[in-house]
Write a structure and sequence with these properties.
24% of the residues lie in helices and 15% in strands. The protein is an alpha+beta fold. Helix 1 (36-49) links the parallel strand 1 and strand 2 (50-59). The longest helix is centred in the middle third of the chain and has 14 residues, at 36-49. It comes from Micromonospora parastrephiae.
Length: 117
């Protein structure tokens, strides 16, 4: 399997040579960092490249506890909700939507055992 890494704007996938189709998309806090006015472009780019039955594994959170990096962009303080994901990915089926923030994620993940007990 060949792997190719790209560094680009995830809301402008049409400008890249990534036609798909893909069976799996993995989003680790990318979507929650995208301003609200660009999230439709992100969703459209993934949807366009998704194979039938493709899966999107998304781990997002409310970035508010970390502060807003640019006060003029108030949408970065917006939470990612199940309703928003249903609206932006209408052809998908939301399997699970568990609210979380960076602080409660840390409390829900147990540290890996080192075996030195």
């Amino acid at each position: 399997m060949a792997v190719r890494l790209l560094h680009a704007d995830a809301t402008r996938l049409d400008e890249l040579d990534v036609p798909g189709p893909f069976d799996l998309f993995f989003d680790l806090s990318c979507y929650c960092g995208i301003p609200l006015h660009r999230r439709d472009a992100y969703a459209a780019g993934l949807t366009h490249r998704a194979a039938p039955g493709a899966r999107l594994l998304m781990f997002g959170h409310n970035p508010e506890p970390l502060g807003n990096p640019i006060p003029e962009v108030t949408s970065w303080a917006a939470d990612v909700t199940a309703d928003e994901l249903r609206a932006r990915f209408p052809s998908g089926a939301l399997i699970d939507g568990t609210p979380g923030t960076p602080s409660n994620l840390r409390s829900r993940v147990s540290p890996r055992s080192t075996g030195a007990d």
